[in-house]
């Protein structure tokens, strides 16, 4: 269904197909599934409520219902994703619905988001120096690359052994796929950090059938199984580091 009139009747089929393909690429590639999921949730809600229109009051009712279980930040996130998908699929710009944005702003009044957990430089240094390798070597290497290169969790999980050049007194680390889509690199020069990385690399099983750098690590040994993204969630790193430094 669409709120816009069909203005493409005279457009050749191949051009219409190309335009449709280009339109699909307008959603963020890494989070497209989340956007589509939010749109599907909204569509399911419309069917449940027997709603066929896409008016301002419909969206106001939808967000009012969601506000009973969503935090203010989640409401805004849902709104942002729906806005993007509806603009593509229905040619509808819900940012023009002033009552909806006013309602969301009102729900945000007094909302205090949780403060992000942070690590001090002293905590990081203490962890790298004192935490036992047998339990924390994987996290040490992840922290070295995460701090030195300001790498995100998904970038850490995708790192390959080929991304790192060991030139004796320095590690040159290449980042082929960053958020800006532009390759970049950084270096690691601290001798202690170089030694930590090399200790971890020496534990890599010769039979590893892939190039992923980070492997599951337990009791001083690596398996061939690559580490999943969840292990690099920052809150997990913080918790383990704070525990080891207690």
TrEMBL record:
<dbReference type="InterPro" id="IPR013762">
    <property type="entry name" value="Integrase-like_cat_sf"/>
</dbReference>
<dbReference type="GO" id="GO:0006310">
    <property type="term" value="P:DNA recombination"/>
</dbReference>
<dbReference type="GO" id="GO:0003677">
    <property type="term" value="F:DNA binding"/>
</dbReference>
<dbReference type="InterPro" id="IPR002104">
    <property type="entry name" value="Integrase_catalytic"/>
</dbReference>
<keyword id="KW-0233">DNA recombination</keyword>
<dbReference type="GO" id="GO:0015074">
    <property type="term" value="P:DNA integration"/>
</dbReference>
<feature type="domain" description="Tyr recombinase">
    <location>
        <begin position="114"/>
        <end position="246"/>
    </location>
</feature>
<dbReference type="InterPro" id="IPR011010">
    <property type="entry name" value="DNA_brk_join_enz"/>
</dbReference>
<protein>
    <recommendedName>
        <fullName>Tyr recombinase domain-containing protein</fullName>
    </recommendedName>
</protein>
